[in-house]
């Protein structure tokens, strides 16, 4: 028995394999199945280099990609009631909201950020599909209307990126 080949080599190989192939090293395209080096996929803003499929991106990726030097300040969302209509489908809306908040760490399905875009102060509104399918609750509406009403500081240029499921899909069309 050789302790170098039987003991040390397998352990060493295991460590080296772990370092060379972490789970997130490759991304599999949802459309064509092509394996893409994860770093290239992120650098291409989650667009497949093989079939040009545009994958969904969340607010952070959007802000990082658009603001100069990826520097920005997240703005506080307008304070709203969670569920003034006391809406309920198969579950209470407030329960869904609580669950999404716990899972994402976000307050609602929208994020606002302010920063410099091409040297011009700008505010970007991003509706987040990853939060309850971009649910158009009161917070999304208030944040959206805050832009044209110029309630945000310094009258910045504003941009809106919407991602959402079909409005009304919580009215009983799916369980
Ligand atoms: Zn593809």
UniProtKB/TrEMBL annotation:
Spell out the GO cellular component terms annotated for this protein, sorted alphabetically and separated by semicolons: cytoplasm
Signal peptide from the UniProt entry: none
**A molecular function (GO) term:** transferase activity
Task: Enumerate the spans annotated as CoA carboxyltransferase N-terminal domain.
Answer: 25-143
List the GO biological process terms. Answer: fatty acid biosynthetic process; malonyl-CoA biosynthetic process
Question: Record keywords: Lipid metabolism included?
Answer: no
Gene3D superfamilies the record matches: 2-enoyl-CoA Hydratase, Chain A, domain 1 (3.90.226.10)
Localization per record: Cytoplasm
Q: Which UniProt keywords apply?
A: Metal-binding, Transferase, Zinc, Zinc-finger
Under PANTHER family, the record lists: ACETYL-COENZYME A CARBOXYLASE CARBOXYL TRANSFERASE SUBUNIT BETA, CHLOROPLASTIC
Q: What does this protein do?
A: Component of the acetyl coenzyme A carboxylase (ACC) complex. Biotin carboxylase (BC) catalyzes the carboxylation of biotin on its carrier protein (BCCP) and then the CO(2) group is transferred by the transcarboxylase to acetyl-CoA to form malonyl-CoA.
The name of this protein is CoA carboxyltransferase N-terminal domain-containing protein
According to its UniProt entry, this protein's organism is Iodidimonas nitroreducens
């Amino acid at each position: 028995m050789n302790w170098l080949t039987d003991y040390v080599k397998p352990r060493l190989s295991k460590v080296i394999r772990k370092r060379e192939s972490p789970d997130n090293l490759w991304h599999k395209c949802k459309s064509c199945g092509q394996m893409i080096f994860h770093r290239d996929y992120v650098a291409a803003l989650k667009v497949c280099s093989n079939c040009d499929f545009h994958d969904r991106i969340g607010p952070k990726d959007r802000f990082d990609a658009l603001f100069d030097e990826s520097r920005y300040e997240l703005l506080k969302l307008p304070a709203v009631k969670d569920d003034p209509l006391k809406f309920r489908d198969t579950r209470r809306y407030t329960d869904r909201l609580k669950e999404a908040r716990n899972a994402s760490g976000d307050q609602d399905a929208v994020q606002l950020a302010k920063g410099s875009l091409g040297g011009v102060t700008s505010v970007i509104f991003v509706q987040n599909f990853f939060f309850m399918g971009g649910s158009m609750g009161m917070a999304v509406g208030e944040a959206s209307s805050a832009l044209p009403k110029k309630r945000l500081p310094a009258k910045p240029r504003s941009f809106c990126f919407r991602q959402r499921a079909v409005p009304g899909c919580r009215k009983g069309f799916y369980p």
